[in-house]
Specification:
With 92 residues, this protein is mainly α. The chain has one domain. The protein contains two helices and no strands. Helix 1 runs antiparallel to helix 2. 8% of the residues are buried.
Length: 92
């Protein structure tokens, strides 16, 4: 059963949208977890601005690393798809 070109295009666009949303969600989760940990450290050790500040920096670093990994994987997938369409090979 083959799909028409419009349906195939829509499926690819949905996949790309999923990658973008996943990247944003991952960055937000990294930052939220780090902020929560920093807040708990501040509360436990009574070191008010330092735990949250450290959490922000750590969360941004973790979000950056995860974003880089996801973008690298997306670019590899894009290149595979581009090669597949140029060579007219079937999808795997």
């Amino acid at each position: 059963m083959s799909r028409d070109p419009e349906q195939h295009k829509m499926i690819r666009q949905t996949g790309m949208l999923g990658n973008v949303l996943s990247t944003g969600l991952t960055g937000g989760v990294c930052l939220a977890i780090s902020l929560f940990a920093g807040y708990q450290i501040d509360k436990h050790f009574n070191t008010s601005p330092y735990g949250v500040s450290g959490g922000i920096f750590f969360g941004l670093a973790a979000a950056g690393v995860q974003t880089w990994k996801q973008l690298s994987e997306s670019m590899r997938a894009f290149k595979r798809e581009q090669n597949r369409t140029e060579n007219n090979t079937p999808q795997l």
